Amino acid sequence: MSEAADAEGIAYKREHPARAALRRLFHHRLFVTGLILFGIIAGIAAAAPWIAGVDPQRLSMRNKFLPPGETWLFGTDNFGRSLWSRVVWGAQLSMVIGASVVALNAVFGTLIGAAAGYFRRLDNALMRVNDALMAFPAILLAIAVTSVLGPSTLNVILALSIVYIPRTARIVRSSVIVLREMEYVQAAVAAGAGHWRILRHHILPNAMAPMIVQLSFLFAYAVLSEATLSFLGVGAVPPTPTWGNIMAEGRDFMREAPWIITIPGVALMITVMGLNLLGDGLRDVLDPRLRIQQ
Amino acid sequence: MIGVAARRSLSAIPVLLIVSLISFGLMRLIPGDPAAAIAGVAATPAQIEQLRRDLGLDQPFHMQLLEYYGGLARGDLGRSLLLGKGVFAATMERLPVTIGLSLYALVFTLLIGIASGIVAALRQNSIIDQAAMMFAMIGISVPNFFLGLLMIILFAVHLGWLPSGGYVPFSQDPAGWLASTTMPAFSLALLQAGLLARITRSSMLEVLRQDYIRTARAKGLPQRQVILKHALANALIPIVTVVGIIVSLLLSGAVVTEALFSLPGMGQLLTQAVLSRDYPMVQGGLLLVTTFLVLVNITVDVLYALLDPRVRYE
User: Fold this and answer.
1) How many Å apart are CA A104 and CA B83, to the nearest integer?
2) What does the UniProt keyword field contain (chain A) (predicted)?
3) Which residue of B has its CA nearest to A133?
4) Which of A137, A220, A234 sits opposite B248 (nearest CB)?
5) CA neighbours within 13 Å on the CB side: how many for A211?
6) How far apart are the first and last CA of chain B?
7) How far is A135 from chain B (nearest CA, A)?
8) In chain B, is it the N or the C terminus that has fewer CB atoms within a 10 Å radius of its CB?
């Protein structure tokens, strides 16, 4: 049946669903605001080698505690290091850690969630381990894991992935369980399609929407948790310029140089808020069930 | 009711078993020789050997596991290397501080979250609604340690109204306790308050659309009664389900808040244990906190069944 000869006989071209979703997204005010906020930080992070200027580790005791101004855009810290350079490189590290945690979650969350939701025999065992990992308070588990593995950027990524993959897997699993019982999946089974084909072509593409929403919030949690870990002293080792490290070092000087704390704090807030707005927009557009409640 | 409690408690058993296994396994994941790592660089080989024996790390793996569960059965969670006392005793000493802080933060969370959610829902799409949701968005986006730092700069350093850290036990001086915990509790509460405001708003909007609300209004009941008695009672049901999540977030957040405001609670205990490689303390403390959280979640589920009769018959 051609698209032009629809039930009502009205000639119109049906829009591709992905295109329709994109169009709705770009009309969603909050999503666009989030995209701009996140885009600014991501852009700064990507351009770090060209815009940071001086080395973030370069000490200059003559220039310590200079307030933000013309020569030093964001001022300097207790060692006379350029705060602009440190915050810019910190943005890059936050983005790298956030994106890595999201990527690991996308891969392993999907694998575990799909296995548990599709193969009933695996469900119980996988979900009990999942529940156990989710029972730990998130930050505490991340702290414990990084303390065992040793503080480093890579170990922070690993620790945050261990904490968040079970949450992603649970979301994928619940979509897969619903989709598995759909008639078109039953039809594919009846037509003799193998498990791999059914999962790849019939189930997972339809389970993507809630996962994409989850991943955008996860990016926010990961950036926030990384900052928290390094603020507590169990993240990337100082003097690595992470936002959490800069703020932890600035704590002792908050009377004379409050900008050391406030500037990376505001950068962190902009990133997290941008991602949260992005996630809200994606949820409104991609997940119709949740949209009704809004 | 009792059925729900029993079912939930039963399902918690495998979870707690795995939680205890993970806690046990953590210390064995230390790369290289755990005893050497715990003892530090300055330790002599004899000291390392001694520590290995004390921690039971010289035993074969299955014996270590047996010993561990034997200890758990006797209520023995191991001894803290740093404090030289039992993990259970050390945790119990610190727990009241964390529970007090979390309860205080929970009060802030419920007051701010539910009130702004209701106000936003009643004036949907108005300026008030947008302001409330903007506030909620800021709440869930500001890291609690950053908010805490800003509050210290403003209220402790510049205005000098509140102490920047330290702790006064409630039993000693209630006013002092209030002064020492107000900033931590508020900075801890804002994230959860933001979440709760959003959930309350959408739950209220859902309920306000129902026919029985229209009936209540049609028969001339005052607005106050319609909102507080008819709408809120039902809007609260989904809110109760997130209390478990809120408590979990509060406990997680308390770790950072306690470190920031130097409050001698569970969070500070565990952070210090991590930083000084007191692994028996980390392992036991993690297990205790998580068990506590699992119990809170069971209570929440039972409460849910109490509020919503439909759950009981599922």
Assistant:
1) 38
2) Cell membrane, Membrane, Transmembrane, Transmembrane helix, Transport
3) B19
4) A137
5) 29
6) 12
7) 6
8) C
Which of A71, A60, A35 lies closest to A278 in space, CA to CA?
A35
Q: 3-state DSSP helix/strand/coil percent for chain B, to nearest 5? A: 80, 0, 20
| ipTM score assigned to the predicted complex | 0.84
d(CA A189, CA A198): 8
Instruction: Tell me whether residue A193 is exposed, middle or buried, using C-beta atoms within 10 angstroms of its C-beta: 0 to 12, 13 to 18, 19 or more.
Output: middle
CA atoms within 13 Å, Cβ hemisphere of B147? 22
CA distance B299 to B244: 9
* Contact criterion met (CB < 8 Å) for A139 and B30: no
pLDDT tens digits for range A102-123: 999 999 999 999 999 999 888 8
Alpha-helix runs per DSSP H in B123-143: 127-141
In whole angstroms, what separates CA B122 from the centre of its chain?
30
> How many angstroms separate the CA atoms of A29 and A35, rounded?
10
Contact A64, A78 (CB under 8 A): yes
CA atoms of B236 and B243, how far apart (whole Å)? 11
Estimate to the nearest angstrom the gap between the alpha carbon of B165 and the chain centroid.
20
**pLDDT digits over A170-223, tens only?**
999 988 988 888 888 889 888 888 888 988 888 888 888 888 888 999 999 999
CA distance A271 to chain B (A): 8
